[in-house]
Amino acid sequence: MSRKVILSGIQPTNTPHLGNYLGAIKNWVHMQEEYDCILFVADLHAITIRQEAAKLRAQTKETYALLMAMGIDVQKSILFVQSHNPKHSELAWVLSCFTQFGELSRMTQFKDKSAKSEENMNAGLFTYPVLQAADILIYNADLVPVGADQKQHLELSRNVAVRFNNAYSPTFTVPEPYIPKSVGKIMSLTEPTKKMSKSDENPNACISVLDSRDVIIKKFKRAVTDSGSEIIYREGDDSKAGINNLISIYCAVTGKDLPTLESEFAGKGYGDFKVAVGEAVADLFEPIQTEYARLISDKTYLDSCMKTSAEKAMRISAKTLSKVYRKVGFYPL
Ligand code: TYM
After folding, report:
1. Which of 36, 168, 286, 297 could lock 327 by a disulfide, CB 3.0 to 4.6 Å apart?
2. How crowded is the C-beta side of 57, counted as CA atoms within 13 Å?
3. With left for phi above 0 and alpha for psi between -120 and 50, is residue 36 left, alpha or beta?
């Protein structure tokens, strides 16, 4: 039996952060052993927010190298840059004709982002989830490992797939989201009821994978918590959002479970715990940073990996696209 297909992507809008790593990338790395993984740097999605061209180019290469440094193995997985495969955009047009205006209007990410960029409320921001559906459906992905913030986009992809399949005949695999339970949403360190985000204006809110050890520990020391002192996880208690987030991070990074953590820190205060979380995260990122420094200086190697992977991606997606063109009735040449 052929292996299941995993697909996921990340935008090169800034250096990946701890939330990207724990919510998504860490799973991609593990899943490579069991599944056929197709992963990409979503540069087409990135331009829904105005980007500086030179910076976008540099960050695309940086994100690609970081994914490799984190453990994505181009011998096992397909790791490419989205704009290197034009088939996504071609399928997105067809799928946009199978997506309702009302559905897109309900996307919370659209509402959030358009509220933040009133001066640039472009159509791409609105149709973004259609392109995301094309990314997924063009490879007939079975599973999509993402953080909890992408759940609504995944539901839309499923609806579009079902709608197209019903209109013609089974064409697309209906994808399942794969969202890690405890770390599906890593929160901001300064406003723990908001998700950790690359675009946060407060640099202390977010831990970048390339932050130095000192910076990481400093940011955790400053993390917003409450006036309590016990290191105990209290599910669903918003007043404990800060400490709950730090506990989730510590457990995810060290692999320890809650009872082990709670007994390890019994009698200790938030101050000690914050330093321990910072050290654990710095230890996690150190080898990634060393490998990244080696890879980023080797443009020839990175370019050749991008090219081989884009070609593989294109071969798979061309098949799906020609099937779709045939079904909708486009006249073949
Ligand atoms: P992006 O670039 O915002 O984030 C990449 C991945 O990281 C996850 N993530 C988080 N997980 C936990 N806690 C957080 N604070 C956190 N912030 C981000 C995201 O859920 C995501 O899995 N639209 C996507 C990129 C994309 C995509 C796709 C994903 C484009 N096409 C097709 C899957 C399938 C995005 O903007 O991710």
Report:
1. 168
2. 5
3. beta
Active site residues: 113, 195, 198
Element (H or E) spanning 20, and its range? helix 18-20
Q: Provide the 10 A C-beta neighbour count for residue 186.
A: 26
Q: Which of 201, 274, 280, 320 is nearest to 18 (CA)?
A: 280
* pLDDT single digits (tens) 104-136: 999 998 888 888 878 888 999 999 999 999 999
Burial class (CB in 10 A: 0-12, 13-18, 19+), 296: middle
Whether 164 contacts 171, CB under 8 Å: yes
Structure tokens at 139: 């490879």
Beta-carbon neighbour count of residue 177 at 10 Å? 19
Write the CB contacts of 303 (distance below 8 Å, at least 6 apart in sequence).
Answer: none
Q: How confident is the model at residue 1 (pLDDT cuts 50, 70, 90)?
A: low
Q: Could you say which DSSP state residue 186 is in? A: P
The DSSP string of 106-129 is: T-HHHHHHHHHTGGG--HHHHHHH
Q: Which residues form ligand 1's pocket by a CB distance below 6 Å?
A: 7-11, 19-20, 23-24, 42, 45, 132, 135-136, 144, 146-147, 149-150, 185-186, 195-196
Q: Tens digits of per-residue pLDDT, 53-97? A: 999 999 999 999 999 999 999 999 999 999 999 999 999 999 999
Q: How far is the CA of 14 from the centre of ligand 1 (A)?
A: 12
How wide is the angle at C-alpha 208 spanned by C-alphas 242 and 261, nearest 5°? 40
Q: How far apart are CA 60 and CA 210, in angstroms?
A: 15
pTM as predicted: 0.96
**Cα distances (angstroms) measured from residue 7 to each of 144, 146, 245:** 5, 9, 27
Q: Where are the beta strands (DSSP E) in the chain?
A: 5-10, 36-41, 78-81, 143-145, 176-178
Helix (H, G, I), strand (E, B) or coil at 267: coil
Residue in the block written with tokens 């992905």: 141
Structure tokens at 227: 């006036």
Looking at this protein, which amino acid is placed at residue 28? W
pLDDT of residue 59: 97
